[in-house]
């Protein structure tokens, strides 16, 4: 195997491990109004985190997320408990929005990829299939917290995001 192939394989392995780490972190589930925990990086460096380190996602009145060849737009969204979010595929290839973590889709309470194709499918944060161009999937968020999601068919950056429910 030549050096170029080794480098390519190393990059692929790092991306896969990074994706698994990102989606296995799950849900922060910090209730609205609760103080956020300081970041690990800030604690290790000995400096206090700045309030501008991670801006909160803006509230989007339309609660729509488009899936494009460049990922989810917007990738973060803030909604009220009881709001519905709709993902629409604007790309030429199928995309499958679902709650983290890949591949089980069990982070949002009650969700599980094993429920796809059952009577419980309508209650889970999982499209349960690849959405064709122009097709949409909607989910009503009743649980307060920050819920990560991804594209099950392409679980790599930039095909992930989060919904913050207040």
Describe this structure in words.
It is a single chain. This protein has 166 residues and is an alpha/beta fold. Helix content is 17%, strand content 23%. It is built from two helices and eight strands. A four-stranded mixed β-sheet has the order 2-1-4-6, with no helix packed on it. A four-stranded mixed β-sheet has the order 3-8-7-5, with no helix packed on it. Strand 1 (64-68) and strand 2 (71-73) form a beta hairpin. The N and C termini lie far apart (52 Å). Residues 26-51 have low confidence and may be disordered.
**Rounded to an integer, what's the Rg over CA atoms?**
17 Å
Helicity range: 10-25%
| Measured distance between first and last alpha carbons | 52 Å
The largest β sheet comes out as: 4 strands, mixed
Summarize the entry for a quick read.
The protein is of the alpha/beta class and 166 residues long. It has two helices and eight strands.
Strands, helices and their partners?
Elements: H1 3-24, H2 40-45, E1 64-68, E2 71-73, E3 76-79, E4 84-89, E5 97-99, E6 136-140, E7 145-151, E8 160-165
Parallel strand pairs: 1-4, 3-8
Antiparallel strand pairs: 1-2, 4-6, 5-7, 7-8
Descriptive keywords:
23% strand, 166 residues, four-stranded mixed sheet, globular, 2 helices, alpha/beta
């Amino acid at each position: 195997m030549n050096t170029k192939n080794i480098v390519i394989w190393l990059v692929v392995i790092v991306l896969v491990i990074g994706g698994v780490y990102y989606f296995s972190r799950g849900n922060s589930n910090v209730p609205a109004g609760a103080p956020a925990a300081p970041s690990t990086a800030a604690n290790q460096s000995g400096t206090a985190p700045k309030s501008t380190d991670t801006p909160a996602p803006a509230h989007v009145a339309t609660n729509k997320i488009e899936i494009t060849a460049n990922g989810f737009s917007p990738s973060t969204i803030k909604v009220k408990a009881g709001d519905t979010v709709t993902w629409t595929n604007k790309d030429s290839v199928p995309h499958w929005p679902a709650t983290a973590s890949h591949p089980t889709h069990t982070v949002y309470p009650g969700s599980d990829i094993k429920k796809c194709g059952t009577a419980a499918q309508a209650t889970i944060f999982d499209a349960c299939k690849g959405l064709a161009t122009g097709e949409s999937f909607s989910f009503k968020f009743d649980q307060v917290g920050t819920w990560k999601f991804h594209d099950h068919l392409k679980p790599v950056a930039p095909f992930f995001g989060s919904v913050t429910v207040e």
